[in-house]
Amino acid sequence: QVQLVQSGSELKKPGASVKVSCKTSGYSLTSYTLSWVRQAPGQGPEWMGWINTKTGNPTYAPGFRGRFVFSLDSSVNTAYLQITNLKADDTAVYYCVRENYGPFDPWGHGTLVTVSS
Amino acid sequence: EIVLTQSPGTLSLSPGERATLSCRASQSVYRNYVAWYQQKSGQAPRLLMYAASNRATGIPDRFSGSGSGTDFSLTISRLEPEDCAVYFCHQYGNSPHTFGQGTKLEI
Questions:
Q1: Model pLDDT, residue A101
Q2: Among the listed residues B106, B107, B104, the one whose alpha carbon sits nearest the alpha carbon of residue B38
Q3: Interface test with A, best of B97, B98, B104 (most A CBs within 10 A)
């Protein structure tokens, strides 16, 4: 079945970087785009942007330009989210999601990134 | 960007009752491209409805969606204890995608 398996939780200090992976299986990676979604503690989800899985071209939502980088390694069916110069308010669960012709389905299980000194 | 406002913030009902959750958009959503998700504690969201009124695969017919333009709703008939969760609406008709802040359903 379709699965998006993400890397484990991360604890980072302010100013550090983190790279979250999202390994897809059960479908052809290039048939659907992938988005990244952030959910801060007790908050609603927030769309960060998407990556074109055919070309690897990323598109970032307003508010996620500069420190956030989406990338892809098609040879291992894996997408990546890198965040540089981490700040305390980057503390959140980060989800990769398959865009199923619009709605998000399914969601990865999420990766908790905690930024604390 | 389109702002989605969900109401009520929290809804407390009993098993067997009917729940109606509201999602209001700050402007009309293209082609009524609104989805609803269920998020249980400690889990990722799960797609329930798409394009306002279409049930996702495997979702029981106790769940139904309706609405158009700026006003959308999710109805859960015959509530079961397992329906206890936070429900989010999501519009994907206009960029950027946006989500509501959620309605917590207590059973």
A1: 81
A2: B104
A3: B97
Per-residue tokens: B54:
């279409």
State percent of chain B over pLDDT 90: 98
Q: Which helix (H) or strand (E) holds A36?
A: strand A33-39
Adjacent-strand bridge partners of B5: B24
Q: Reduced to 3 states, what is the DSSP secondary structure of residue A18?
A: strand
pLDDT at residue A100, rounded to an integer: 81
Q: Please report the pLDDT score of residue A48 as a whole number.
A: 97
Q: How confident is the model at residue A19 (pLDDT cuts 50, 70, 90)?
A: very high
Residue B67 in tokens? 């609405």
Contact B90 A107 (CB under 8 A): no
Pairwise CB contact (< 8 Å): A95 & B102: no
Query: CB distance from A35 to chain B under 8 Å?
Result: yes
Q: Indicate the Cα dihedral angle B41, B3, A38, A54, nearest 10°.
A: 120
Q: Collect all residues of chain A within an 8 Å Cβ-Cβ radius of residue B47.
A: 100, 103-106
**Chain A residues inside the 8 Å CB shell of B50:** 102-103, 105
- Looking from the CA of A52 toward its CB, the CA atoms found within 13 Å total 6
Per-residue pLDDT of A28-74, as tens digits, reads 888 999 999 999 998 999 999 999 999 999 999 999 999 999 999 99
